[in-house]
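Here comes just one.
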Amino acid sequence: MEVIPVINSETVSEAKRHLDILSPFVPHVSRVHFDVGIPPVSTIRIPLFPQIFSEYADRFSFELHCMVPEESFFSRAHSASGVKRVFYHLDEIHNMERFEFLMRSWRKRGIEVGVVVRSTDVLRDIILPKGIRSVLVLSVVPGRAGQKFQTRALKVISFLKEKYPRVILTVDGGITPVIAKKLFSLGVSRVTSAAYIWENKKPEEAYKKLTQI
């Protein structure tokens, strides 16, 4: 299972400190996940992300979980150096045709666009844009790290696996070894981890334990 460390920081210095901790993990960690938005999601202003990424783009690829309204989709900050994947919330897409056009244009520039589906979403309302290859299943309420995994996410995962079997799922929120093992049995190949890694006295050991699922 691929485990992608999450950085959900309140300051630029804190974000850089976490990246410095992850640097010795290379090449085991090649991708880092950043939460992007407004408080309580993150208090780092979006224009500052290029400043962070430019210093670490030679070591990591970045993906962004963009908890922003549709008018903030596809901003210049979301195509900063090192960013290879961005996720936007499905329920914030109001112009599907335009979204699909921009998604294709970004793919030509080497940036994959995925969508976020929440564990609270009504299953019949989950209709993915054409061409989507990656879906982030959010198994907690958007906000700070350390929340408990919501079991309803399992129904959403099963629904997506049946309706969109070719889409690669990433599960975000409340990941522990026990949860990761359950997700793996459902065919999930990627998870993100924030609290389980960063609240451990030995982050690298916590990371490795998840990857061994």
Summary: The helical segments are 12-22, 49-54, 96-108, 153-163, 177-185, 195-198, 203-211. The chain has a mean pLDDT of 90. Residues 96-108 form the longest helix (13 residues). The chain has seven helices and eight strands.
